[in-house]
């Protein structure tokens, strides 16, 4: 087994270098000077060149061959599975292509930010065309004659196919649409009013992050245009954003990213700087952010605690009691932005992107036609015309940086979160008494013990089934949403 020891020592260095590359991306999104974007593109391309060379080094293949047939324990076998998968993937993608994708997507992020700020899709379209062409080339190398989009999905949700996801999403859409229509026809709860100081929001959001167990000794909160979580092991950072007329944007973006971060921080230390030392898939990762944000953070019990904190920090903001605040936090309103959407309509935002990105990758939709296709799809789903591209196809950073196949994992994560919430509530019937005091420990401990600690030990579906005791399906999410919003809106 010396081959296994040598392979894992080599992999530890590769994982550490990958962490360094991730830190460069975090810096670019938060504090990097705007004029450094071209140089950062070269730096990221250089890192990708080094990483690609390590991931495709012939020695990896030799070690894998030498280990074949040896008895392995569960952790060793899982590490070997992930290294095999990475080696097979990376040997299919030419090093020059991997470096070019890293460089172009880094540059595209800056161009996208400019185009979004100026509502000018034409400014971004040529660069976006380059990104799409490169990602199609990569997908063709990975698919080896198969479906390009399915090949892309494997980077985010191993084992998933577009056909499987379409079936699941097809079951979600009619019940979500029906619930949305009922809610929109009911009397709307009152929202918050006033101006909410940005510094005060950031102070409160740090308190909220701590209440969900975020460890500031191994993390930090900064601001970014698009909130995200970055890192693994002992360094997991999050970002949020503030709006002086909408404090929920900051608070719930933070709780969402804390869910991602706590997954990474909760992984057993034995997996650090190994292939198992990160979340197993983006769908499972999203299950953690969504259950923290929604089933816990937007629950009647936790909002009772948060209402008191808001009153202490901001005084009177137009909501007279905790019940009114719970309704305000969970208001269902028309809007353009996915990240600001309520629980009912969020998945409808995702389904639009899922439909469009398949067409982009499979060549059924030209880049120049994307704004029109987006606007038509949005109006069909939401009954509202998009007013500008920053509220439409330029609102998300995912496509500019080449993350095709990522969007459906958001809805898959909601489905997983629905399953986890059912299992968690069955095990913790008195959870609300803790949540109403801002104590989330029973829930976050349950998630760490049943899911987070294992990292990438099991495949995504197996991870959820192991935690819940049943196979993942959309029914628990739909039943949770229908019960919650029927109660808030007094629906029969």
Automatic annotation (TrEMBL):
GO terms for biological process: proteolysis. It comes from the Bacteria. Keywords: Carboxypeptidase, Hydrolase, Metal-binding, Metalloprotease, Protease, Zinc. Binds 1 zinc ion per subunit. Its cofactor is Zn(2+). It holds the Pfam family Peptidase_M32. GO terms for molecular function: metal ion binding; metallocarboxypeptidase activity. Broad specificity carboxypetidase that releases amino acids sequentially from the C-terminus, including neutral, aromatic, polar and basic residues. PANTHER family: CARBOXYPEPTIDASE 1 (PTHR34217:SF1), METAL-DEPENDENT CARBOXYPEPTIDASE (PTHR34217). This is Metal-dependent carboxypeptidase. It comes from Pacificibacter maritimus.
């Amino acid at each position: 087994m010396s081959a296994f020891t040598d392979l894992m020592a080599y992999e530890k260095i590769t994982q550490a270098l990958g962490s360094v590359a991730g830190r460069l991306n975090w810096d670019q999104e938060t504090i990097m000077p705007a004029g450094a974007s071209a140089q950062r593109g070269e730096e990221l391309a250089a890192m990708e060149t080094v990483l690609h060379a390590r991931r495709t080094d012939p020695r990896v293949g030799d070690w894998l061959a030498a280990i074949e047939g040896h008895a392995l324990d569960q952790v060793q076998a899982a590490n070997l599975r992930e290294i095999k998968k990475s080696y097979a993937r990376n040997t299919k993608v030419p090093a020059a292509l991997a470096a070019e994708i890293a460089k172009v997507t880094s540059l595209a992020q800056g161009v996208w930010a400019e185009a979004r700020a100026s509502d000018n899709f034409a400014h971004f379209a040529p660069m976006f065309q380059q990104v799409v062409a490169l990602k199609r080339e990569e997908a063709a190398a990975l698919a080896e004659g198969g479906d390009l989009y399915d090949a892309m999905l494997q980077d985010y949700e191993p084992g998933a196919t577009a056909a499987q996801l379409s079936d699941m999403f097809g079951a979600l859409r009619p019940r979500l649409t029906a619930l949305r229509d009922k809610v929109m026809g009911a009397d709307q709860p009152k929202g918050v009013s006033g101006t909410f100081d940005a510094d005060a929001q950031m102070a409160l959001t740090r308190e909220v992050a701590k209440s969900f167990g975020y460890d500031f000794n191994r993390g930090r909160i900064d601001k970014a245009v698009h909130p995200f979580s970055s890192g693994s092991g002992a360094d997991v950072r999050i970002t949020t954003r503030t709006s002086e007329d909408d404090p929920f944007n900051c608070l719930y973006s933070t709780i969402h990213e804390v869910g991602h971060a706590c997954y990474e921080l909760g992984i057993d230390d034995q997996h650090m700087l190994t292939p198992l030392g990160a979340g197993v898939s983006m769908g499972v990762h999203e299950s953690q952010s969504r259950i923290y944000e929604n089933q816990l953070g937007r629950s009647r019990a936790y909002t009772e605690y948060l209402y008191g904190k808001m009153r202490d920090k901001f005084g009177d903001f137009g909501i007279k009691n905790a019940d009114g605040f719970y309704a305000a936090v969970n208001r269902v309103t028309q809007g353009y932005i996915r990240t600001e959407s309520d629980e009912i309509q969020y998945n409808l935002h995702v389904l639009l992107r899922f439909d469009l990105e398949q067409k982009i990758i499979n060549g059924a939709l030209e880049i120049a036609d994307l704004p029109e296709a987006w606007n038509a799809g949005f109006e069909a789903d939401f009954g509202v015309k998009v007013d500008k591209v920053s509220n439409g196809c330029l609102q998300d950073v995912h496509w500019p940086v080449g993350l095709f196949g990522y969007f459906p994992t958001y809805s898959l994560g909601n489905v997983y979160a629905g399953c986890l919430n059912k299992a968690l509530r069955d095990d913790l019937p008195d959870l609300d008494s803790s949540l109403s005091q801002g104590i989330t420990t029973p829930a976050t401990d349950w998630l760490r013990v049943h899911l987070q600690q294992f990292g990438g030990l099991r495949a995504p579906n197996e991870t959820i089934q192991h935690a819940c005791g049943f196979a993942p399906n959309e029914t628990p999410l739909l039943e949770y949403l229908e019960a919650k919003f029927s109660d808030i809106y007094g629906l029969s």
